[in-house]
Design a protein that fits this description.
Layout: E1 12-13, E2 16-17, H1 18-22, E3 26-31, H2 38-49, H3 51-56, E4 59-65, H4 69-79, E5 85-87, H5 92-96, E6 110-114, E7 120-125, H6 130-141
Parallel strand pairs: 3-4, 4-5
Antiparallel strand pairs: 1-2, 3-6, 6-7
Helix pairs in contact: 2-6
């Protein structure tokens, strides 16, 4: 897992890049194990529920999993998420963020708050409390963009 203060690695996001997004606002990047599973659905819905709070605090949201992009797109559509999901079946983004489970290749459940300066302001890891990611991250975001 990357630590606060480290530079967040760049990656493509829906026709742009994370670093291009950071030129305009901070970004919450949450990694989740697998689309269409109960815990990941709860987590994604939680970020959607608080999307406006994040936006008003100066943050966008991006979700990343090891699913193929087509699966990520279907998952996003099925939950009507107002933010992009990025599929990373090769695990390149997961490895760059140090959240890839060895052997199984899925993402660990980790959420980063990244400031406009491209530095990680906060990192949170909890495999079993998916909804805690939203609450903890929202509290950090309310402190304002870094």
């Amino acid at each position: 897992m990357r630590k606060p203060g480290e530079i967040a690695p760049d990656f493509p996001v829906a026709g742009t890049t994370l670093h291009a997004m950071l030129a305009e606002r901070g970004v919450v990047v949450f990694f989740f194990p697998k689309a269409f599973t109960p815990g990941c659905s709860r987590e994604a819905r939680g970020f959607a529920r608080d999307h406006e709070t994040f936006r008003q605090a100066g943050y966008g949201i991006v979700g990343v999993s090891a699913d193929p992009q087509e699966v990520s797109d279907r998952f996003r559509q099925s939950l009507e998420l107002p933010y992009p999901l990025v599929g990373d079946p090769r695990g390149e983004i997961l490895r760059a963020y140090k959240v890839r489970w060895p052997v199984i290749g899925l993402a660990q459940r980790v959420t980063y708050v990244v400031g406009r300066d491209r530095r990680i302001a906060s990192a949170f890891h909890s495999e079993f409390d998916a909804e805690a990611h939203v609450g903890r991250t929202c509290a950090v975001a309310r402190g304002g963009p870094q």
